Amino acid sequence: MTIVKSQTGVTKNEPIVDKIIFTKLENLLHKMAFFRGWRYVAFVSGFVGFLGLALYPIAIAPMIDPSEYRKIQKEARKNIRQEDIQPGNMKIWTDPFGRKKPESD
């Protein structure tokens, strides 16, 4: 291994040594690769499927059927008068066009 002094005054190895080190590192990384081909596709698909299964009951199911959450909200707010908790004596929001609110569960 020969050390060469560059124009900036910094010593460094010859390019041949760098090439040998890079080749050994590349071979090591090549051997360490975990998934290739169908195994990679299976790993990525499994990860995405796991995220979907974890997020479904939290984010997707309430948007598909909100009736259960409306019942819970109605029960929780049963004894609360909105006029009493309105900040700054503000008027409760009403529809400016006078449309009737549809009755829901």
Automatic annotation (TrEMBL):
Cross-referenced InterPro entries: MITRAC7/Phoenixin (IPR027917)
UniProt protein name: Small integral membrane protein 20
Keywords: Membrane, Transmembrane, Transmembrane helix
One GO cellular component term noted in the UniProt record for this chain: mitochondrial inner membrane
UniProt-listed PANTHER family: SMALL INTEGRAL MEMBRANE PROTEIN 20 (PTHR34923:SF1)
Segments crossing the lipid bilayer: 40-64
Any GO BP: mitochondrial respiratory chain complex IV assembly
Keyword Transmembrane helix: yes
